[in-house]
Amino acid sequence: MTSKTAYLLVMAGAALWGTTGLFVNELNAAGFTPWEVVGIRLSFSAALLLAFLSVYDRRLLYVKLKDLPFFVGTGIVSIAFFNYFFFSVIEGASISLAVVLLYTGPVFVALISRLTFKEPFTARKSAALVLMLLGCVFTVGLLPAGSLSTSGTMIVFGVLSGFFYALYSIFGKYVSGRYHAMTITTYSMVFGSLFLLPTSRLWEKAELFTGGVILSGLGLALFATVAAYILYTAGLRWIESGRAAILSTVEPVVAIIIGLLVYGEVITVWQGAGMALVIGSVLLTVKRQKRTHPMAQKWKGSA
Questions:
Q1: Which end of the chain has fewer CB atoms within 10 angstroms, the N or the C?
Q2: If DSSP codes are grouped into helix, strand and coil, which group holds residue 290?
Q3: CA-CA distances (angstroms) from residue 98 to 1, 21, 54, 82?
Q4: Burial grade of 273 (CB within 10 A; 0-12, 13-18, 19 or more)
């Protein structure tokens, strides 16, 4: 595979992640709460990933019992809750705001890694933190207007989505050297769905599962989750993980464009500048490095 093809695969995967809001809004409109939408995403994705690996390579389904707690961390503590807060902001505010606040995640990774793995907090990371905070202040309208353009609850939820988003990388680091990225993602989805199915009580809304809802659920799982992850992982095998993470900033760009063109969201010049600063903080956070392992994975996993 050529580098150009690998770049295109990574960008295609990131672009598909950026379509998440389309399917989430359809499910919200059908009468599902954000928590229930998370249940749909994880259960549909787990089923598709299990089916895919059963055909593609069953060896990737084997894991050790001692590592299951880490998959509980990636699937329940991280994926379940970051999706919930992310989808809540999409429902209560906008796709654009949701995806920008979600992308505070890499900075949280740098902060948490400093505390848990004693990784150095460099001047580059410090600058990224400042850019992220300044970008968020502009994005939510606190500056220069001096008043928030959205509710405080939505802002807190957006930041929490970034925080729980970051925890995937932290939990995943303990098993990333022992398992293929597809294995980690599949079991994360499985444990997440096992937690969401009983807590979301989706069976109580069985009457809402019309053809349109099923198609939206499958679209969210197939295109915005499974296909996106497979494309990203395929490209990641041939290029540096740092460069792939930079290319993945296509995701918020696609999400913002969808918000503008499909849902008529309005972004002011200052909010646009804030979003650019947040994306810039991601680029500063990512440390460019050579790929040392063919199973290297994206820090965010399956957003």
A1: N
A2: coil
A3: 35, 9, 34, 11
A4: middle
| 8 A C-beta contact, residue 82 and residue 17 | no
The answer to whether 63 and 179 have CB atoms below 8 angstroms apart is yes
What letter would DSSP give residue 13? H
Helices (H) and strands (E) in the chain, counts: 15, 0
pLDDT band of 157, cuts 50, 70, 90: very high
Asked whether residue 140 carries a pLDDT value surpassing 70, the answer given is yes
Q: Is 290 exposed, middle or buried (0-12, 13-18, 19+ CB in 10 A)?
A: exposed
Polymer length in residues for the chain: 303
**Is residue 296 within 8 Å of 246, Cβ to Cβ?**
no
Give the pTM.
0.88
Q: What is the pLDDT of residues 17-51, one digit of tens each?
A: 999 999 999 999 999 999 999 999 999 999 999 99
CB-facing half-sphere around the CA of 255: CA atoms within 13 A = 31
Amino acid, single-letter form, for residue 43: S
Tokens of 26: 């359809």
pLDDT tens-place string over residues 205-239: 999 999 999 999 999 999 999 999 889 888 877 87
User: Which residues, 6 or more positions from 56, have their beta carbon under 8 angstroms from its beta carbon?
Assistant: none
Q: What share of the chain is helix, strand, coil (3-state, %, to 5)?
A: 75, 0, 25
**Using CA atoms, how far apart are residues 243 and 288, in angstroms rounded to an integer?**
6
74 Cβ contact list (under 8 Å, min separation 6): 167, 168, 171, 172, 184, 187, 188, 191, 301
Rounded Cα distance, 230 and 211, in Å: 26
221: left (phi over 0), alpha (psi -120 to 50) or beta: alpha
Phi, psi of 154 (to 5 degrees): -65, -35
Which DSSP state fits 64?
A: -
Give me the amino acid identity at 12.
A
